[in-house]
TrEMBL record:
One of its GO terms (molecular function) is FMN binding. This is Lactate 2-monooxygenase. InterPro entries: Aldolase_TIM, Alpha-hydoxy_acid_DH_FMN, FMN-dep_DH, FMN_HAD, FMN_hydac_DH_AS. It comes from Nocardioides jejuensis. Gene3D superfamilies: Aldolase class I.
Length: 391
């Protein structure tokens, strides 16, 4: 059986024949390579976050407070990293979190401005699923056509126009998405000093709004088409995007929109997990948006109580994952699947689908080796008692 860590061996063998890695091997390198491709506005939009950025830094540091207990002679020469999610078996527990500007991050690609297609191609090539943002640069139907056999999920930013929300969900179903992920932590934009300093926001420049501009419900509300007047269409988007009134009372409506698996993203408190469960959702997505929305506690510290409250329901996790070791730790704290945002975003920026694929190969090879060398042969063996708290 092949292990993800075969990638590791391949790199050394390639070196014997004079072929060096095309991309850096760890997070700081991916970020630096991406930075060289992006202008300051785009780089800051991705790298930055809420307020003094304590939250995004704390997300990363939270992983450093856990260590893994090694076990010897356990016969973990072959590892099974596969997980079952909503009736699909995935070869690994890693997924690509929704990144709303990835559509315009593919600066190094031959046809820039189609980063969402590059993400879909990455998913097709690797089998690593993607949660695709509402904020795409290509319409969801075109993105879905590039996914190959890898199931993907559609992330819904619930607009304040119910008819438009319903249209998005209908389209996602028709395009073949395997589930709907409703993001709850972005009913308005967070306080982001870097973006404020640039006084710039991609969507207001009519970027990454293809799902809106191609939507019959959205278009019907415009005086001129988005092709004739993109600026006016972007303003209409701004008026529609925010939804401060969304509450638990709306969950029954959201649930009623689809028979697909429904997940709520941004859930970090056990009481919210229980309310979501009572409302009939199929999965919880524990995340603090990578520290981009509200300044908050590190998501990893909130994960164990969320998992306990979920009581067997799948819990997806993201925020602060920077390495394969982090993936293993999040699994041991109870995550069913572990998402990355900025890491694969940098991959798209440094090399399109090839760059993102490289990032995922590195994460998976390191996760696989970390499990194997520590004596754990499957995801099921990664339980909380595998971890030691580092003072
Ligand atoms: N989350 C969403 O639910 N929808 C989005 O459109 C979205 N856009 C994002 C754009 C950027 C540039 C970044 C960095 C994150 C975005 N997120 C969005 C949050 C990610 O899905 C994810 O929660 C976060 O990136 C995880 O943290 P990490 O970057 O530390 O891995």
């Amino acid at each position: 059986m092949a292990n993800f860590s075969d990638f590791n061996t391949g790199v050394y063998f390639n070196g014997l024949f004079g072929t060096m890695p095309a991309f850096p091997m760890e997070y700081a390198g991916w970020e630096a390579a991406a930075r060289a491709q992006l202008d300051d506005v785009m780089y800051d939009y991705v790298a930055g976050g809420a307020g003094d950025e304590f939250t995004q830094d704390a997300n990363v540091r939270a992983f450093q407070r856990w260590g893994i207990t090694p076990r010897m002679l356990s016969g973990a020469a072959e590892r099974d990293l596969s997980v079952e999610l909503f009736g699909h078996r995935f070869a690994s527990p890693v997924f690509m979190a929704p990144v709303g500007v990835v559509g315009v991050m593919d600066a190094a690609s031959e046809t820039p401005g189609h980063g969402d297609l590059e993400v879909a191609r990455t998913a097709a090539a690797t089998g690593v699923p993607a949660v695709m943002s509402t904020l795409m640069q290509d319409p969801m139907e075109a993105v879905a056509a590039e996914l190959g056999d890898t199931p993907a999920f559609f992330q819904l930013y619930t607009p304040n126009d119910r008819e438009l929300a319903e249209s998005f969900v209908r389209r996602a179903e028709a395009a073949g998405f395997a589930g709907i992920v409703v993001t709850l932590d972005t009913w308005t934009l967070g306080w982001r000093p870097r973006d404020l300093q640039h006084a710039a926001m991609p969507q207001l420049q009519a970027k990454c709004l293809a799902n809106y501009f191609s939507d019959p419900v959205f278009r019907a509300k415009l005086d001129k088409t988005p092709e004739e007047d993109p600026g006016a269409a972007a303003i209409q988007w701004a008026l529609t995007f925010g939804n401060p009134g969304l509450s638990w009372d709306d969950l029954a409506w959201l649930r009623g929109l689809t028979d697909l698996p429904l997940l709520l993203k941004g859930i970090c408190h056990p009481d919210d997990v229980r309310r979501a469960k009572d409302g009939g959702v199929d999965g919880i997505y524990c995340s603090n948006h990578g520290g981009r929305q509200a300044a908050s506690a590190p998501a990893l510290d909130l994960l164990p109580d969320v998992v306990t409250a979920a009581d067997g329901m799948p819990v997806l996790f993201d925020s602060g994952v920077r390495s394969g070791v982090d993936v293993v730790k999040a699994l041991a704290l109870g995550a069913t699947a572990v998402g990355v945002g900025r890491p694969y975003g940098w991959g798209i920026a440094m090399g399109g689908a090839a760059g993102a694929q490289h990032v995922l190969q590195c994460l998976l090879a390191e996760a696989d080796l970390t499990m194997g060398l520590n004596g754990y042969a499957s995801v099921a063996e990664l339980t909380r008692d595998v971890l030691v708290r580092i003072p």
